[in-house]
Amino acid sequence: MNNGLKGKDFISIADFSPEQLRYILDLAAELKSQKKSGVDLRRFNGKNAVAIFEWGSTRTRCAFETSCNDLGICFTYLTNSHMGEKETVKDSVRVLSAMYDMIIYRTLNSTDYLRDIAKIVDVPVIDALSGEDHPTQMLADALTMEEEWGGPGSCRGKKFAFVGNCAVDPLWYGRICALLGMDFYAIGPDIKMLKLCDEWRQEIKDFYAKWAPNNKFVETDDLDALKGVDAIATEWWQNSIVDDNGKPIVVDSYEAFMGKKNELFPYRVSNDLVARTDKETVVLHMLPACHNAEHNMAKMLLSEAPDEESREIIREGLEITDECFETHAHHIFREAENRQHTIRAVVAAVMGL
Fold it and tell me: pLDDT value at position 244?
């Protein structure tokens, strides 16, 4: 039973029921097992997928490309296109819809932007990251936790905390946690720009009321809320800015990463912070992680840091310390691998498996 997923757009976790989520996660686990056993997964020979990425990607692009290849689907990563420059996006996607069997789209625009595209094409549209959701990442996190805790349904009743810059990611995690039947805690500074906006906060409250009325959604700046938490996730401290047209822009600048370091530093995920759970806690990070100074971004931050205290924070790790990252690397890199397995399931499901 495909649970009504054939031909369905995959734009936001909010569009799916717990039963549909369960189908995708079970399919992901099944196809992962078959892949590792050497089973030929090419169920969709002759089909074609096109990927439009408005900004860079490593894991997401590779996961989509290898997943499509595994399933026998030819994959085009669109580059050097004048879409949006000399031709409207609306015209371009209508052309692509006639040539391809699915459109994979990564954008800083809202999910409504992808929904508008979906209305004018005749093939499924899959969100490879938008301004308001990262649905395939949430599936990977869910599969990773289920593998850690014993399989399907094992997330139910567990406690999940997102710690750090809570402006955006708790929207994504709040949705998936509600569908999985988990308590969800957004733990970070009590500062407006580092918290969910009112609209997104209400969306999560409504989602819990609909799908998980017996579970908790909590926003707090109190680190004592970590006690009893089963899984922790964090993300870059980086903040986006908004251009004159209201579109978010990701800026790789010292201010974007370090402008709120004093407020965010107490919420840096370290082994000491994780120990506050008093449990064997799963630590997740969707990557990339600024957990040391061995990459060009951190080197730029070091070169612009005004004092030794800031430089020391950068060397030790921003949102997560290098020590904690390596302690939980087995969780984090399984999570990254599971991008492929869950994306393979999404692609297969919307194609009819």
Answer: 55
Tell me if 93 is assigned to some domain: yes
Region for residue 153 given its phi and psi (left: phi exceeds 0; alpha: psi -120 to 50; beta: otherwise): left
Which has the closest alpha carbon to 125: 133, 135, 115, 134?
115
- The verdict on residue 4 lying in a domain is no
Give the number of domains in the chain.
2
Residues 66, 177 within the same domain: no
Residue 247 scores a pLDDT above 60:
no
Tell me the pTM.
0.95
Of 346, 349, 224, 338, nearest to 287 (Cα)? 338
Asked if residue 268 and residue 195 are part of one domain, the reply reads: yes
Residue 178 DSSP symbol: H
Of 300, 292, 212, 193, the C-alpha closest to 254 is 300
For residue 129, the enclosing domain spans 13-133+339-351
Instruction: State whether residue 129 is helix, strand or coil.
Output: coil
Strand partners, 269: 320
Q: What sign for the dihedral angle of Cα 273, 278, 280, 285? A: negative
Q: What are phi and psi of 184, to 5 degrees?
A: -130, 130
Residues β-bridged to residue 157: none
Same structural domain for residues 127 and 162? no
* One domain, residues 291 and 147: yes
288 and 192 share one domain:
yes
| Residue 5 lies inside a defined structural domain of this protein | no
Q: Which helix (H) or strand (E) holds 218?
A: strand 217-220
Q: How far apart are CA 205 and CA 218, in angstroms?
A: 9
Residue 303 lies in a domain: yes
- Residue 306 sits in a domain of what CATH number? 3.40.50.1370
Contact 168/199 with Cβ under 8 angstroms? Answer: no
pLDDT in tens, 292-302: 999 999 999 99
**What is the signed CA dihedral for 94, 97, 99, 104, rounded to 10 degrees?**
120
CA 335 to chain centre: 11
Q: pLDDT tens digit string along 21-78? A: 999 999 999 999 999 999 999 999 999 999 999 988 999 999 999 999 999 999 999 9
The DSSP symbol for 8 reads -
